[in-house]
Amino acid sequence: MSAAFTTRTLDITTGTTETVTDLTADCAEFLREHADGRDGLLNIFVPHATAGIAVLETGAGSDEDLLATLHDLLPADNRWRHRHGSPGHGRDHVLPALVPPHATLPVVSGRMALGTWQSVCLVDTNVDNVNRQVRLSFLGQ
After folding, report:
1. Helix (H) and strand (E) counts for the chain?
2. Which helix (H) or strand (E) element contains residue 32?
3. To 5 degrees, how large is the angle CA 36–CA 56–CA 93?
4. Structural domains in the chain?
5. Rounded to 5, what percent of the chain is helix, strand, coil?
6. pLDDT tens track for 25-44
7. What are 65-74's pLDDT values in tens digits?
8. Residue 107 and residue 139: Cα distance in Å, rounded?
9. What CA–CA distance (Å, rounded) separates 40 from 9?
10. Sheet with 102-108: strands ordered across
C-alpha cells in the first residue's frame, strides 16, 4: 500500500444498549501513526446495515439527545416491514438513511480539522449486534 493511502479496521464492542461511541481518539491515533504531518482526507466507514457515523458534540448531552431523537423518529415497535431480531429491529435498518455509514474529514498537518466541540462517533441502535467494525482510511499528499 502506498504512503499516500493507508487503512485500518477498528473492532468496537457497543454493548446491548443503543449507543453513541466516541471514536475521536482512535481517529487521532491512526493519523499520528500514518499521516506523518501531511494534509489529506480521513474517511470513516462502518460496513454495517444498522449503524452510522456522526460528527457531533459529546459529553454535554448531545449524544443522548441524538439517541432520543432517533427513538422519536424511528420507534422500536412492530410497524416495520423488516422483521427479525428484537422488536422494532426494522428501524435499525432505516438508521443509515439518517445517520450515514460514513464521514470524510479534512486533515491538516496530520490532524483532523474538527471544530472545537466536534467529535467523530459511531451511532448504533441495534442491540442485537454488539460487535462492530469501523474502517479508517487516510488519503494524503
Report:
1. 3, 8
2. helix 24-34
3. 105
4. 5-140 (2.60.120.460)
5. 25, 35, 40
6. 999 999 999 999 999 999 99
7. 999 999 999 9
8. 9
9. 19
10. 5-13, 131-140, 40-45, 102-108, 111-112
